[in-house]
Amino acid sequence: MRMLALGFTGYLGGHVVEHLRALPGARVFGGGRSPAAELDIDLATARTDRLVKTLASAAPDAVINCAGSTDGDAVTFADVNSRGPAVLCAALREAAPSARLVHLGSAAEYGPGTPDTRVAEASATRPVTTYGATKLAGTVTVTTSGLDAVVLRVGNPVGPGAGVRARRRPLPSRLRRARGARTARRTHRARTRRGGLRSRDGRTAQSLGPVDARAGRGRLSPGPPRTPGRPHGRRPVPCWNR
User: Fold this and answer.
1) How many angstroms separate the CA atoms of 33 and 43, rounded?
2) What is the pTM of this model?
């Protein structure tokens, strides 16, 4: 069986191709923009007539479309998620009308869900993002193409190699400075109440080590002079936004 996998270098596409190539008698072609692709196919820019020739040369029995964009602007989403499936369907109708088409959609096509309520396949689609709307447009194109086609709506795939972003977004510099200054002031007030800083009446003699207010570009260090040869032995109070 001859199968063409589009977007085979992506996270989902890579797993799909791995399983397909393990099937007995399977001949799997990788299609995409990667140098490793056996067929040069870019659905975002492909012309129907040229894609017809490419598909005719591959003569696939099945096409699995894993190509899609989850990151970019509205134009990128429209080109890859909406235009791509439309060009693919048009070319398949001419080059391989009997081929089975499996298209990967997205759960984002349903839009926001209801807590503690399952989303059924026949649930209403109400996308609220450009990504979800363009994926829904691709789904409609595939399901109304007249081809032997099926759409699999994928929801939040995770795993090794998925490229999940776990980094925190950096705070704007002014916000960092403001929060750092607030942290230093709160620490100052709290330790003054506990007798840790010299109070206004001058009666408190206990000192406090330096409080690092990096974001505020300042230090609170009202302690006594350092004894030569002896370190302070005190650690800076940690600031939450380091």
Assistant:
1) 9
2) 0.64
